[in-house]
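Box S2. Input/output pair 1.
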Amino acid sequence: MNAQHLIIYNHTPLYHILEELNSDLKFKISCANSENSLKEKLKNYNNYLIISDKKYSDISNQFVLENKPINIFKLIEKINIEFLKLQFNNQSQVKVNNYTIDLNSREMLTHDFKLKLTEKEINTITYLSKSNKPVRIDELQKMVWYYQSDIETHTVETHIYRLRKKILNTFNDNEFIISKKNGYQIK
């Protein structure tokens, strides 16, 4: 897992306090006192949280320290909770081609549009996206629907037909899931 980085932005006294506790913390601490130094730090970090004493609208992954004074142990607990929230949100986002699949809200997103999906549709998309070759219907039955392969059913074909139709209607994308002679594939 990537190391967690706490960047204290425009709050030098807090940086000095947490720096003294650094050996007991589970995250790395750094300080940024200007927009340029903040941007420079963000180039090097993937897993970060920015703490400041006021809200900056152009900064993401930000935790605003509003209620002061605060018990140092409460502060560290709140920082750890914020890191957990970020980790949860990051793990729920899956990129598939030009789309983002949000596993928590069960939505497929682009910049302009959002499509609500069922759990089976999400499972189908994520399973297909992990394969570099077409996936046979019996494999989808077994791995997504947990059917035995000797059962004759058109569940997979029906679901994929409906899923393609939803994607076409929302995103105007007729090529997201393609049919091959030996199965379905997302390229």
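Box S3. Input/output pair 2.
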Amino acid sequence: MPRSVNVVAARHRRKKMMKMAKGYFGRRKNVWTVAKNAIEKGLVYAYRDRKAKKREFRGLWIQRINAGAREHGMSYSQLMGALKKANIDLNRKVLADLAMNHPEAFKSIIDKVK
């Protein structure tokens, strides 16, 4: 009995991957083996960097809060300690937004914890 190969499914799989390679440069966009490797590597980077993005944003928020706090004579760590002691539950994202875009509201928070 001859060997049966499901070419329809295989072509669908390859076509799906080649569609993901759109926009790549050179052989990465149209040669199956090169494109497959490039796509797999790209997906690994995407997975890794979804996690790294969260860390980078937290660092950015801390820098912004620190800059805002130092304008009012406090360091970041002093401010965060004072916020905890005063039971003010604002996360770093909100504090950073206030420090950058609403300095008067940020100043009122600092005055409250001083």
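Caption for Box S3: Residues 26 and 33 are 13 Å apart (CA to CA). The two ends are 85 Å apart (CA to CA).
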